[in-house]
Amino acid sequence: MRFVQFEEAGQHKLGLLKEGNVNVLGPASLDDLLAKGVDLVSYAAGAEVTGERSVEELKFLPPLTRSGKVICVGLNYSDHTKESNYEQPNYPTLFLRVNTSLVAHNEPIVRPNVSNALDYEGELAVVLKSGGRHIAKADALSHVAGYALFNDGSVRDYQFKTPQWTVGKNFDGTGAFGPELVTPDEVPHGARGLQLETRLNGEVVQSASTDTMVFDIETLISTISEAITLEAGDIIVTGTPSGIGWAREPKLLMKPGDVCEVTVEGFMPLRNPIVQEPARG
């Protein structure tokens, strides 16, 4: 199943993507369904369809808007670790994002007025349907509700102001998420072997297989749960491959008027224009 969330006439709606059109399932949200422990595939199979919309007419929302935790993984592709001049860690490099940093498909990514160092990072995100502590690696994928695309827009000069990356990864309107939540039955086991690409103004700037993650999805879920109680609706953003703009010479950074697109084979692309933050009055 392929779920999308969108806004229509001021209402939050849930839909099921089928062959370029969306079957409207009503005012339910994925946040609420996951919090209640509802099986998404069963829900979609039994839900009443109240209308149909074309993808082009939708005002998308992120697949989740009130996630309890957005846990991002840095340095999870060795080629990106090398271009970033780090030694490859033998433990996942984790940081958090806040919900106010998230934007939907087709919604602008905002370059802040305090910096022109806005960079792209195409990634695959995992949404959990259940959680707990000390999840065994063998059981980890049974906790996955689905997968989505993510652009971990990074304000690089702020990211590296301190050893902690938090500020540079959390400017409002910099983390694109969506456009669809794809359930595991539509994806290879553990989302393995999928080609991930990022395009800036139509040019491929990142390309790698999810097979080349240093820590696969099962390992990430299990390892994170050693320390943190995972919950339904939590998001794990699994890392970016090489090709970031900050590592290039000259640097290739996103600017107003650009369009950035993240793709994973079999998924609807995540597309976002870049705009400048409005000046304060």
UniProtKB/TrEMBL annotation:
Boundaries of every Fumarylacetoacetase-like C-terminal domain copy: 69-275
Alphabetized UniProt keyword annotations: Hydrolase, Metal-binding
Cofactor(s) required for function per UniProt: Mg(2+)
A GO biological process held by the record: carboxylic acid metabolic process
Keyword Hydrolase in annotation: yes
Molecular function in Gene Ontology: hydrolase activity; isomerase activity; metal ion binding
Entry-linked InterPro entries: FAH, Fumarylacetoacetase-like_C, Fumarylacetoacetase_C_sf
Family: Belongs to the FAH family.
PANTHER family: FUMARYLACETOACETATE HYDROLASE DOMAIN-CONTAINING PROTEIN 2A (PTHR42796:SF4), FUMARYLACETOACETATE HYDROLASE DOMAIN-CONTAINING PROTEIN 2A-RELATED (PTHR42796)
Name of the protein described by the UniProt record: Fumarylacetoacetate hydrolase family protein
Species per Swiss-Prot/TrEMBL record: Paraburkholderia polaris
